[in-house]
């Protein structure tokens, strides 16, 4: 029996592949390389020593997905494949609704046809919207402020409704906070297309000299230093959270929701200072206007994952800063040569 990872060549998917293999699972990867690189597969072979079965194609292509299920003995699916750039989703909503929503429905229909009813879904803290107060708990109402966020809210709803309609389904919704860092080898890491939207890859690209300076989006928030506070979690901790969530999903039917965060909030300037101190490299920055749609503070109550899954984040800010820099300094152009 194998675990199918859609978007398996992506930032979270590739790191989760490594931890699942370490935990003794067989994995099968699907990716269309719309936001990832074939080079990731070579890196995964180096890290794991295994030739991981891989199928290139889109989750929108039901014939392709059906063939993957028929050629492999799939026990469960971890669904990472989705577009995730907030700004791009505002500019191109149809692209996001089609890829993320229609793609998920296509996947679920093929799973149902193939009799595979166990899914772990890559959701996001973005579903907590603008009106909830941190620390955020899984029972809070969900909402969104952009099409990307709405796709996550809608995909959660689709999965919950499916589990209500058919008691044979096991659905696990994992709400990621802010994943950063990289595998300790520096062979895999975050490689956004174009100019990074997210803070950490922007910091590392300034540090490596690809970008001139960091724009700090606002220093007038109601936080200790006025800059935005988020719950940054090491991507390897996040990957291990998936391994424990999968183990739970394989035996528990119905819908289960978990925050995957550390429960600690750090500001933008906290990260800049921690990065410079850990890696002895400068990150010049300039204070700019707030970014539309940003909230001041967002961090998790991570107690449910600890109580139910036995999972807590193990890595600290030093680890996250060190590993982010090792990846970027070893790969200044990401996976491009
Ligand atoms: C973090 C903080 C910014 C960039 C988003 C998505 C979320 C998830 C993670 C996919 C904020 C500040 C950022 C920069 C800055 N994505 N910042 N300068 O917005 O918390 O979450 O990415 O799943 O769903 O919503 O992450 O890294 O963009 O921003 O000052 O160049 O850094 O204002 O306070 P965010 P982020």
TrEMBL record:
- Report the transmembrane regions from the record: none
Which chemical reaction does it catalyze?
UDP-alpha-D-glucose = UDP-alpha-D-galactose
- Tell me which Pfam families the record gives: GDP_Man_Dehyd
Cofactor(s) the protein needs: NAD(+)
- Residues of the signal sequence? none
* E.C. no: 5.1.3.2
Which residues belong to any copy of the NAD(P)-binding domain?
4-323
Oligomeric and partner information: Homodimer.
Give the UniProt family note. Answer: Belongs to the NAD(P)-dependent epimerase/dehydratase family.
* Entry protein name: UDP-glucose 4-epimerase
